[in-house]
Design goal:
Layout lengths: L3 E4 L5 E5 L2 H10 L12 H14 L8 H10 L1
Length: 74
């Protein structure tokens, strides 16, 4: 794949050009790729809300180190 970075007059990257053959290969490998920017389904929003609510209760939050300890014990 040979993408080309498109830059504005200041040299700041503003986009990427991908050859159509490469784009079609990406879409074949990841058929839902076009929907990435779509709105989240309600069930995913509900999960996020539950996780955000846990942030209000710090005693429920455990560190990543704690997770690693648990995984090491298993």
């Amino acid at each position: 794949m040979k993408p080309q970075v498109i830059q504005d007059h200041n040299g700041k990257p503003t986009g990427v050009f991908i050859p159509i053959e490469d784009w079609n290969n990406i879409k074949k490998k990841y058929p839902d790729f076009d929907q990435i920017g779509d709105e989240l389904p309600q069930w995913q929003k509900d999960i996020i809300d539950l996780r955000l609510n846990d942030l209000d209760n710090p005693e429920k939050i455990k560190s990543i180190e704690n997770l690693f300890e648990v995984l090491d014990k298993e």
